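seq as requested:
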Amino acid sequence: MSLTGTPFFLTTIALVVVALALPLALWGRIGGPGLVRHATRLFMLLFAQATAITMVFVIVNNSNGLFDNWDDLLGTGDHVKVAADLGPDGTGGKNADTEPKTLQKFKPASDKRMGPGVKETQLKGRISGVEGEVYVWLPPQYDDPAYKDKKFPVVEVLPGFPGSAKAWFGTLEVNTQLKPLMEKGEVAPFIVVAPRTTLLGDVDTGCANITGKANADSWLSVDVRKMVVDNFRAESEPDGWAVAGYSAGAHCATKLAIAHPDRYRAGVSLSGYNDPIGEPSSLTAKTPELRDEHNPWKLLQRAKTPPRVALFLSGAEGDGYQGGLAIKQSAKPPTTVQVTMIPAGAGGHGTAVWKRQVPDVFRWLTKQVKR
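struct tokens:
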């Protein structure tokens, strides 16, 4: 039974009803020695509490897109088939442009909560050695005959950790929010791509390449990128690509944009962090060396040439805002940085806050990328 499916949710509701009915019906009818009666009543109370907690967890999980399936919840999933040393640029010495095309079969997304128009595919990353699902939403103009020769800009969207690739569509409703804005011309007609980011069960990869563990950077910035270009009328140049994320995904988006100006022109961070220790379960938080190597603020400071990227960084006091200011203070042209403060009381570190930011984020992206 699917963790996020309606049957499991209805089952939890039924169990809560049963758990509440049992004490009402049987409390005074339990016979036997006193110890047995007390133990039976205690079991009924614990059963009622367990079923209630389970139902609340399912509601929260489905609302926030935390865990996709039982493997993600139990930490038993492994989407990494091989994690070779791919070198500093994450390509393993290969040129993605000259590699055979990665042609995929797509089907409508099976989870109806993601809204209309979302397609999904299972991708085997040739460079990264990662296998996982990728969700793609095409703008309303994509099938318009007037745009038949048009190549569209792309935004790769990343969830937090734990987090589901579905969350930008199901929880933040990026597609249903953007469609009317695109039809009115307020927002550019972006292709929105959401790849799996939970690759190693209950461990966050930090979207990094770590030999022997995972090549998450290459999965996102090489394999997924090539697949989109090979299967859709998508811009192939960095001027047509952006990456956006919230929480741990925000950290990833900032890092990927700064590290790969040859792949992305813009990056969006919603309530992110610079030091990987912001997500203690991240592989990049395990040693001081890894924390330093994968800190986007320090990446920017170490860059021999300031990257030609635009960054949009938002957060509240103590939750991304100061980190954004640190990056802005270190940025030199052609790097540009916009930092926005989320006011106290706006909703904290949660999907409701990030959902409200979607229209403004994509209006900003419209000004940054080729379209």
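The first helix runs from residue 6 to 26.
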